[in-house]
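Quick one:
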Amino acid sequence: MKRIGLIGGISWVATSAYYRQLNMEVARRLGGNASVDLVLRSLDFSEVLSHADNPERIARMMQDAADALVGAGAEILAVGSSTGHKFFSGAVESAVAFLHIADVIRDYLYKNEIQRIGVLGTKFILNDGFLLDRVNADAAFDIMVPKEEDISRLHGIIIDEIARQDVAAQSLEHLHRMVSSFEREGAAAVLLGSTELWCGFQGVTASLPTIDTAEIHSKALIDLALAED
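Output:
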């Protein structure tokens, strides 16, 4: 098994999802007490947020984390945050693989023949092109995002509530309304674009299938870790 290096802490809720999913997937495939070979560099989310207007500073933090993981023997690198990919160029040593979450999402949509999909996530995911443009590089999918006023509200729910595991009832209702809107517009599924959204959706009765990006990214990482050289 190749050693996975995970940049986490953006937020710890997402990181905990990765740790759980990675170990569950290894145990499912190898059985017994098998668990993942993992090194983790968990960033201080409050420090990351404090530099929101200084993307170069966050990029340096991410690169320093990647370098530390490579120094700890990581053979595969991943960022446990969809938004975090905005600040990480993937500049790593040639001997180390970097698995971009957008590529995993694209492959999943192709494999499951999903063409029309609604996406929920932070304002960076929904307004900037770093993730969804890469997912839809072939223009094969019809990707829907919430209205601008809903994006702002959703960003606050993710950062101020879900990332703290303190989600208000009215926020759960708001998530449900956005999913229902996607359903009315003909979406086949909803992509939980932010990797901590799995936590918020535990209290939501979704009318559409939901795709947990942390889960599919974790499974793809284990594919890579267990693949023959």
